[in-house]
User: Fold this.
Amino acid sequence: MEEPTSLEHYLRTAEIDLFGDFEAAEGGGHPSKELVVLRGGIGALAKLALSDPERRQCRSEAGAYVVAHALGWDDLIPVTVLRAVPTREGQVDASVQILWPAFATAAELGLDEATVPGDDALRTALIDGLLLNSDRHSGNWGLVAGARLGLIDHGHTAISGLGGISGFYEQWRGHPLDDEHRGRLESFVGHGVGRLQELLDDEGVVRSIAERASSMLAASALVADA
Ligand SMILES: Nc1ncnc2c1ncn2[C@@H]1O[C@H](COP(=O)(O)OP(=O)(O)OP(=O)(O)O)[C@@H](O)[C@H]1O
Ligand SMILES: [Mg+2]
Assistant:
C-alpha cells in the first residue's frame, strides 16, 4: 500500500503555534476557514468540519490529495490531511492543507484553461475525472509563484457527494492515455485505492473511483462517465 509521506505525518502531528481567521477573496465556498501556523513555521489552511456537509468536504479535500499522491502527481495538489485544530471554541476536526507559496488564482491572473501546458492540463483532467470534481472554476486553480500550476479547493467531488464535471476534464475527454499515464493509473488501482479506503472508510465511493480508473485503463483514454 502507498505509504504516507513524512510531510503528511508532520502536518498531522505538528504543534499548532498560531491560529486565526483566513481571509478568502470572496464569499461562497467553504465558510469556516482558519490560517494555522505549525511548529517550525509552515503555514496551512484549515477548513473546519462544523457540520456534516463540511465534514464530507474536508474528507474530499484530503481524498483528492491521496489520489494525486498515489498517481505520483502531488506536485499539483498540496499535502492535505485530516486532524483536529484549535479554534476559539476548542478543538475541531478539519482538513489541513499546506499553502502554496505566492499563489494567485487563474481568475486573479486573468488566465483560462488554454494557457495551461498540455501535460499539466491532461493530468488535471485525469485527477478531476477520477474524482468527478465539479468545482474546477478559475478560482480553484492558479499559479504558484507565477510559474507552476497549482490546484486548490477539492471539496466538491464524488467523495463529498457533490460530484460533477470539470472544465479540464471536458476539454480532454476521450484523449488517449500514453504508457506513463497508464502506469500511474495501474499503480493507483494497485496501491492507492487502499489508502483512500483507509482515509474515507466508504467502500461505495472508493469503488466508484477505482472503477473509473479501471475504465480509463480499459479504454486507454480519458473516460470518466462509466
Ligand atoms: N493550498 C492553498 N495555497 C494557497 N492559497 C490557497 C490554498 N487554498 C486556498 N487558497 C486561497 O484561499 C482562497 C479560498 O480557498 P478555497 O477556494 O479553497 O476556498 P472556498 O471554500 O472555495 O472559499 P471561496 O469562497 O473563497 O472560494 C483561494 O482563492 C486562494 O486564494
Ligand atoms: Mg474555491
Notes: DSSP finds seven helices and eight strands in the chain. Residues 97 and 116 are 23 Å apart (CA to CA). The beta strands are 16-21, 33-38, 42-48, 80-87, 90-98, 103-105, 141-144, 148-151. The mean pLDDT is 95.
